[in-house]
Amino acid sequence: MSAARAVVEDTYAEAFKSLYAEILITARDRTWLDHAVNAATGNASSTIMCDCEAGLDRYVGPGGDASAPTPDGRPGAIVQFHVPRFRRNRTVLAVALERALLVRISQNVLTCPTAACFNLLDTDPFYKLGRKIAYFGNGYEFRDNRHGRPVWVIPILAGEFVIDRRFGYREGLMGGNLWFFGNGVEAALAAAERGTAAVARIPGVIMPFPGGVASSGSKAGSKYSFSIASTYEKFCPTLRGKPGVESALPEGVNAVMEVIINGRDITSIIAATQAAIAASADTPGLIQISAGNYAGQLGKSFIYLHPDKQPRD
């Protein structure tokens, strides 16, 4: 007997603009590739307190998406880094993104055995990031042409670190999301895991939280002046019935898991959202699938859960 299909609420996730960069990390094998990716995307779940939101898009080259070969023919991983466009000054925002890239590539990719780093966005303006990281060579660094592209080569203890000279950046989107309402933690998490597995197969998107899942979804604002975000009390099961709390949880829901989806464009996030819904809706114990929004106050890109509601170009 098949499980009952969860109700998919007629609502939308509210995505907002970002500046993002997209890089390709390659390494000798999947083990060292994963070390580089995990380090470079660490402490980047939420810009509430992190310098950016970062995550793995997909594996490419040998052992990954064969339709996307890597410059050096080795296993590769595409990684995205996003900063929100809440800061109105685009110059300040671009500087913040460059700083995040500089720190993360220099400290986590350059240092990883056998790793190399390439740019994937051919844009103008761009960052001269390769030059800045190459200063680590202390005068022994040099420009070269490797794999048909201009690079900086930095002598290191293991041999050489190769990095593209220029790294582009452009507008992307952050804040796509799905909420999985379960009759308990196991059901909500199982649905989220099915959803994240489906999202991982969609090119152009990342899920920045650990394992792709956030168990502490937040709302903007707080009673404390020093905090810009806080727990979303209306959706906390243990606060149901507490004084001053108007619970918004459906009957029978005892746990909620959230999946955040950032990406290069709205088309990619829509595809990821629908893939996650299709993969998770029949999870045993899952009661409802929903999403968070602020009635258009946070972002202007709406990702509808019911595909027939999505505006057509």
Q: What does this protein look like?
A:
The protein has 313 residues and is an alpha+beta fold. It folds into 2 domains: 144 residues, 2-Layer Sandwich (Alpha-Beta Plaits), CATH 3.30.70; 153 residues, Alpha-Beta Plaits, CATH 3.30.70. Helices cover 21% and strands 32% of the residues. The chain has 5 helices and 17 strands. The strands form 4 sheets. Strands 1, 2, 3, 4, 5, 11, 12, 15, 16 and 17 form a 10-stranded mixed β-sheet that branches. Helix 1 runs antiparallel to helix 2 and helix 4 crosses helix 5. The radius of gyration is 21 Å and the shape is elongated.
List the helices and strands and how they pair.
Blueprint: E1 7-8, E2 12-26, H1 30-40, E3 53-60, E4 76-84, H2 90-109, E5 116-119, E6 126-127, H3 129-134, E7 142-146, E8 149-156, E9 159-164, E10 167-168, E11 170-182, H4 185-199, E12 205-206, E13 218-220, E14 229-231, E15 255-263, H5 266-280, E16 286-290, E17 301-304
Helix pairs in contact: 1-2, 4-5
Structural class: alpha+beta
Terminal CA distance: 40 Å
CATH topology of the largest domain: Alpha-Beta Plaits
**Structural domain tally:** 2
The proportion of residues forming helix, as a percent range, comes to 10-25%
Number of helix segments? 5
Global geometry: elongated
Order of helices and strands: EEHEEHEEHEEEEEHEEEEHEE
CATH class annotation of the largest domain: Alpha Beta
Q: Compute the gyration radius: what is it? A: 21 Å
Number of separate strands = 17
CATH architecture of the largest domain: 2-Layer Sandwich
Strand count, sense and closure of the main sheet? 10 strands, mixed
Instruction: Indicate the proportion of strand residues.
Output: 25-35%
Unreliable runs: none
Average per-residue pLDDT, rounded, comes to 95
